[in-house]
């Protein structure tokens, strides 16, 4: 399965590219904004496309041509204003979904944020961020794409444990970025995650077991 990683140069994105490249049956295509970012991935032997989410839907669709799945793990970052959050985390996400439809790519995994499906859990210091994630997720659910929405808690750079908690609603708790990337890979490999949305935090259950328990509920 060839998978386009939108936001490949981000911290989750880089880990995800590595894990996909190490997984039998999966291949990554790294989508980045700058040529110098592309050069790093090309040195690793990773197919790379240079497209900005503020570019047109047609340009994003061209990048998605020939892939089997898309993972959206892009974000405007914590140092930008609300305007850039709306352009990347909301409009950029929706443009990538429109591009998926245009390119005929059905499988789509969204990296969202814990609790944003409930307005009363939106971050008081960054309601624009929570709103962007909320409405991008809502759009995805109504897009007709074979979606999975992963809503991780606050991210850390601790080594992954391979153990998580997964449920529709969880208390806010941290999770290593490495475990988020591993959960995305597991979701890509498991078609029973299609049409599912869940919170994700650190826990005591192996990732594939946690996914299967959630699916079976």
UniProtKB/TrEMBL annotation:
Pfam families associated with the record: NAD_binding_10
InterPro entries hit by this protein: NAD(P)-bd_dom (IPR016040), NAD(P)-bd_dom_sf (IPR036291)
Membrane spanning residue stretches: none
Domain of life where this protein originates: Bacteria
Domain NAD(P)-binding: start-end pairs: 7-190
Protein name: Sugar epimerase
Organism of this sequence: Ammoniphilus oxalaticus
Lineage of producing organism: Bacteria, Bacillati, Bacillota, Bacilli, Bacillales
């Amino acid at each position: 399965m060839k998978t386009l990683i939108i936001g490949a140069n981000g911290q989750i994105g880089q880990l995800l590219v590595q894990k996909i490249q190490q997984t039998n049956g999966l291949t990554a295509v790294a989508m980045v904004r700058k040529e110098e970012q592309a050069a790093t991935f090309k040195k690793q032997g990773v197919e790379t496309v240079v497209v900005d989410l503020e570019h047109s839907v047609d340009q994003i669709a061209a990048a998605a041509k020939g892939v089997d799945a898309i993972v959206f793990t892009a974000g405007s970052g914590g140092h930008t204003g609300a305007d850039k959050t709306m352009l990347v985390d909301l409009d950029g996400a929706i443009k990538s979904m429109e591009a998926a439809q245009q390119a005929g790519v059905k499988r789509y995994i969204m990296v969202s944020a814990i609790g944003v499906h409930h307005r009363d859990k939106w971050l008081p210091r960054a309601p624009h961020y929570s709103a962007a994630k909320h409405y991008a997720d809502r759009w995805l659910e109504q897009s007709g794409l074979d979606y999975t929405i992963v809503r991780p808690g606050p991210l850390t750079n601790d080594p992954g444990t391979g153990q998580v908690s997964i449920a529709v609603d969880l208390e806010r708790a941290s999770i290593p970025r490495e475990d988020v990337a591993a959960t995305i890979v597991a979701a890509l490999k498991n078609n029973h995650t299609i049409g599912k949305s869940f919170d994700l935090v650190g826990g005591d259950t192996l990732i594939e077991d946690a996914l299967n328990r959630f699916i079976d509920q």
